[in-house]
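pls ignore typos typing on phone
nickel (II) ion + seq
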Amino acid sequence: MAFLPIYNCYHPTMKQSTEDVKEIDGDIKKLVDDMFETMYSADGIGLAANQVGISKSLVIIDTSAATNEEDPKHVLINPEIISFSDEENEFQEGCLSVPKFFENVIRPKKILVRYWDLKGKEHKFEADELLARVMQHEIDHLNGILFYERLTPIRKTLSKSKLNKIRKGITKPDYEMVY
Ligand code: NI
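k done
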């Protein structure tokens, strides 16, 4: 396994939509292993493949640091959100591509998501609370959307100078970052 450098949110790769995974081969399995190692060493709970510069529709999640889930590791291949609850909640988010920046985001509380696992099995999964939150954040990455784009207008304005420092590399993470 290897640590993969994490791409900064302003890197052009982060704004591109990702391509579907067509075959779950050894390269994909190795990528998943490397992404877990990268996420754990950077203290994250979710990571999308394009955050390590691979423009494929793949995310990994492990919320065990924050929940008591029995099986906290999730690998979502070609995920798609089929439906969102009307009910919303507000929660503070962060992102390994947006170092040292945390802001509250309003999102639907529950989602129904369809994805494939590493064995090629299709799942339809109803996620709630933190897991629904992380899945929405990560699937946004696959569509080129960063969480600060979902802030309320006033929070966006108030975040400008912090985000500028992240863009210029003045605010740096404790791990290797690609600009
Ligand atoms: Ni993120």
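The domain at 6-178 is CATH 3.90.45.10 (Peptide Deformylase). Helices lie at 26-41, 129-142, 153-167. more later
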